[in-house]
Amino acid sequence: MSQFLGALDQGTSSTRFIVFDHAGRPVATDQREHRQVYPAAGWVEHDPLEILERCHEVISGALARAGIEAADLAAVGITNQRETTVLWERATGRPIHNAIVWQDTRTTDIVGELAAAGGVDRFRAVTGLPIATYFSGPKVRWLLDNVPGARSRAEAGDLLFGTIDTWLIWNLSGGPAGGVHVTDVTNASRTMLMNLRTLDWDPDVLTSLDIPRSLLPRIASSSEVYATAGAPLAGVRIAGDLGDQQAALFGQTCFAAGEAKNTYGTGCFMLLNTGPEPVTSRSGLLTTLAYRLGGQPPVYALEGSIAVAGALVSWLRDNLGLIADSGEIEALARSVPDNGGVSFVPAFSGLFAPYWRSEARGLIAGLTGFATKGHIARAALEATAWQTREVLEAMNRDSGVALGALKVDGGMVTNELLMQFQADVLGVPVIRPEVIQTTALGAAYAAGLAVDFWPALDDLRAYWRKDREWTPALDPGARAVAYHWWQKAVARTFDWLE
């Protein structure tokens, strides 16, 4: 039997392929960035063909580093940036437009039009989601309305829609020559088009958004054999598909109701497993699919989505030149003992959970002549921790269960100043696993279960290992005062766009 599994992790800023062994340990990795395209203020795009090329490169690179061939992989799982939207030609595989990225806000008018007919929660009972620019459905509508000829071609069946997982599976399994057009329940649940209970595209929502069903992929489970890949994974079964945040939940082995994780990447996303029934949020969270294994009943989750976390560090590097490398942010923040009274609210694309204020915009508040770049760097890191506290409080209210500890993963968890501050502002321990690439690991786990590489979930629990734990060290009184100033700064971002 093959001793390795592959995971293709296609993220917002980069793509990587990781080879895992039977104990869930990374054997080899290759990772490459792709361009971020900003055609206008608030618009964010990716080139789908560039992403596909990066996927081919990292697959070949990781296999070479591991000293193995594609035939040595038992299967491959795919995980992806969610909500990012691609439309392409069925006959040629050529995209009709750049991918519209999840952060993009060009659909503000469409969102306003939809909400005017029934409020932002018009579809929440069916989809679990508020009406927001974040999700794929309004992005599809924008493409159909604004790319010349797109609507007529879609209605004729000449175009296909997919989130990035669908785009990759279709291309890796043959593209125009028989590619499989499929997505999983987790990605479908992020489109604002899927019924949470039927796990199928909702006809009433499709009618409201004027989206032809012929565009849409088949909705499958998160763990099953979808297709057999061609080069560079010739003959390998594609058997796992999860949106990146659900993949991280799965990779953290949060298989029981009440278990949660927080991923610190471009954005920051906390998910709480709520079990076999969807829980409607009354506190600004999203009701979403956690995963579905084969023909088993689905598992649901509550999610708190934060648009800007690691992206703020990149912004300090790329837009302000405050640092030359993202890894320098911790040292710069440690150069001062506190934030010097500075608060940084990175509402670059509005505020996501728990506010859902698309008109909000970012600000730096509390500046005096005393403030330095060290204070700004520290306030930027603290922003991620405070936003996480807001989400955790909402999650506690909705679930009725106060979390006793938080499992964390993602690129920012190597920043130990941030992790300590996160424990301080939450008042609970923060726990980092040995394998922090839990997004890729979750995709590998899903694929492995589908092909009996691992027989059961309990086997996966045994592979989770703690690397480090941070415990709260901040006085509760000081925590309350600091939180007051954070919330005061957040309130200043509201109603910026008129």
Can you give a write-up of this model?
- With 498 residues, the protein is of the alpha+beta class.
- The chain contains 16 helices and 23 strands.
- It has helices at residues 48-66, 108-116, 124-127, 136-146, 150-155, 164-172, 185-188, 203-209, 244-251, 310-318, 329-334, 373-399, 416-426, 438-450, 457-461, 476-492, and strands at residues 4-10, 14-20, 26-33, 45-46, 73-80, 86-89, 99-100, 159-162, 182-184, 194-195, 200-201, 218-220, 223-228, 237-243, 260-264, 268-275, 286-291, 299-306, 343-345, 363-365, 406-409, 430-433, 466-470.
- The strands form 7 sheets. It has a 7-stranded mixed beta sheet.
- A hairpin with a 4-residue loop joins strand 10 (194-195) and strand 11.
- Helix 9 crosses helix 14.
- The mean pLDDT is 93.
Which features characterize this protein?
498 residues; alpha+beta; single chain; six-stranded mixed β-sheet; seven-stranded mixed β-sheet; 16 helices
Brief synopsis:
This protein has 498 residues and is of the alpha+beta class. The chain has helices at 48-66, 108-116, 124-127, 136-146, 150-155, 164-172, 185-188, 203-209, 244-251, 310-318, 329-334, 373-399, 416-426, 438-450, 457-461, 476-492; strands spanning 4-10, 14-20, 26-33, 45-46, 73-80, 86-89, 99-100, 159-162, 182-184, 194-195, 200-201, 218-220, 223-228, 237-243, 260-264, 268-275, 286-291, 299-306, 343-345, 363-365, 406-409, 430-433, 466-470.
